[in-house]
## 1
Amino acid sequence: MGLLVGSLSGQNWHRQMRRLNLDQAGRLDFMIDKTAAIGKEFGFSPMGIDLSVPALLSFDRTYVEEFKARLAENNLTPVMYVGGVVLSYDEEVRLGALNTGYQHLDVAAQLGARTVGFGCGMNGRVTREGRIRLAIDSVGRLGKAARDHGIRICQEDWDYFTSDDLIRICEGTGLDNVGIQSDTGNWYILGEDPLFATKKCLPLTFHTHVRDYVVEGGTYNGIALGRGIVDFPSILPLFAQRAANDRLILSMEVDTDDRDEDEEAHASYQYLKEWLIATGHWPEASAGSKS
């Protein structure tokens, strides 16, 4: 139980990976090495890492076991992302996507993930009400498959579904393992106040992305935590409250368009570490690394 710190590695260093022109294997190596190094530098033990199942080089069980061992050797706890939900009126499309999601869940379960994220593929011809109805059905099916693996699934606040929509979808499935991935900055993209939306969604929050934004050039641009517009002194205690009876990973995400990624990432992790120590929420497993 309690708060752990993690990394959305693919976003935190996406510009570096693009410039290095890494292939799929190189991207995985880069993300694991960067995340493990942050964990060691700041004393986050274990360290969470957000990874997509399709990013793996193979779904072969031998490879997955080897990848699982590699994460364990680097003291990394995975939060995986799966496909599986496409909000099309075409039943063949919906079921085809779900079959992919079921396969991804098998891999996530083998890796030992207990929380997985997912997104809804949208179809512009489907109305908002239609999307919600289709989401309740497909997310419910994915949730039932996940429940058989002892896995919780959660959808991020991003670009379309509002906090009320996300809550309605979760509750519509009737499943207690279907929830929300609350991204502190993305509520702005949906036109919502992050503090209000975080409070509203807290009972259904299974995972978090902690990120800060500044508004520049008509864009929400990523910046180090505490340097932007998100009210972290009010939001972080809410996550601590949610983690009182359940482990919650604060996966840090910078995703800056024009700043130094390493500088923004380090400043963000320093902010989180100082807050965790000052408020008495430093993970017990990391007690020997408070300095």
Note: Residues 3-285 form a domain with the TIM Barrel fold (CATH 3.20.20.150).
## 2
Amino acid sequence: MDVIWENSLGVFLLVTVVLGGGAAWLAGRALALKWRPFWYALIYMLPLTGAVRFIHYALFNGTLLSMHYFLVDAAVLVLSVSLGYRLMRVKQMTTQYRWLYERSGPFSWRDRQAPRAASEQ
């Protein structure tokens, strides 16, 4: 099962998922709060992925320059930044513009239906 992690599952979960994923989650929330476009998040994940790879290398004797593991780490971080960004954006749209939008699920919102007039009912 060395396709995803190189040392152990515990190291992968700690460094990539918990530390890197947590940082990516917070970055996604921060970008959404500043009303930045989503493509900023993708650019910000490149140096963060490099930092995660360096932690694997420096602390756990992992491979530093491996495209395969870089892409695996980047995929986890992009998923995490996407979730943080989208959940914050849904919260923003449904709280700051509550007269226009309502939540239609954890990842989406929809136009609020105008109340019907008494004569239409």
Note: Residues 9-111 form one domain.
## 3
Amino acid sequence: MNSLWDWIWLTIVIFFIAVYIMMLFRVVLDIFRNHESSGWVKAGWLIVLFLFPLITMLIYVIVNGKEMAQRDVKQYEAARQAQDDYIRSVAAPADPTAQIAQAHDLLSKGAISQAEFDSIKAKALAGA
């Protein structure tokens, strides 16, 4: 490590090792996430991946790249739908009586103070 080029070379090598490890984990996770493949097919991919990691990883991405992307999109859409459902479930109801009842439940659980309950009640009645 006497020259600047040695440090640059070390940085490049570390970068590519990190990318390689990330890709390897990505392929292994996708092998397990693929519900269309049987257990024997998954085991075969993992054994070959263990024996010849770089070549197998490249072949897997070439053969299953499109399906990998589709599984990603499906997973992201499911997560977004779950988030949207959760947001809708905790959103304040439009009915003032329901808002006050929800605030009263929070007050009885100790999640909000009496002053916060009074403020929510006043806003709900003012909006009605």
Note: Residues 93-128 form one domain.
## 4
Amino acid sequence: MALAPKAMSLESRINAVADSIRLLAKRLAERGFEFDRPSEVCPGPEDGTADAIARIEREVGAVPLALRLFWQQVGSVNFCGTHPEWHGSEYPDPLFVYPPSAAIAELDEFLAHTHKEQSEFPYLVPIAPDSHHKENVSGGMWYNVSVPSVADDPPLNDEPHLTTFVAYLELAVQWAGFPGLSDGPGDWPIAELTRGIHADGS
């Protein structure tokens, strides 16, 4: 499967990922995948997104362009769930991106802590639980990006592939929404789920 050419604009890459996520969600449901929270699979942009971005930027600094575009165009995604007949990976690390309301909740805690103890920047925007927490097992730090922005497509901190936010999304698309399967897909029908899907939208 071809990933998005890095020469593409960031907005084009996010658009391609968005289309792929929606199609993968549909195919997974059709194949009998049981999402833990169906209403959170791909609900679309959250009400108040623009206000949330404006507040973060007013309080601590620039939100990375890639994350801003994702919140505005996709909103959030939660592929946590199981299929009764697919096996082979204990921690498939389902694709997950919190909506901006989660960033605001974390911002409130960050500002309270900063006020009391003069914490240093950066503020960390929560992106997703780690692969263990997604399976209800005690794990480590949640995946996050730093604010103020360090790049338009920032590093995705504490994610095991040591990549950027958009590259993580593209990797997830390559593995049908489950980048942890890159360590061993077992009997998951990756080729069938991703047939005709490319992160570049082609």
Note: The first strand starts at residue 34 and ends at 35.
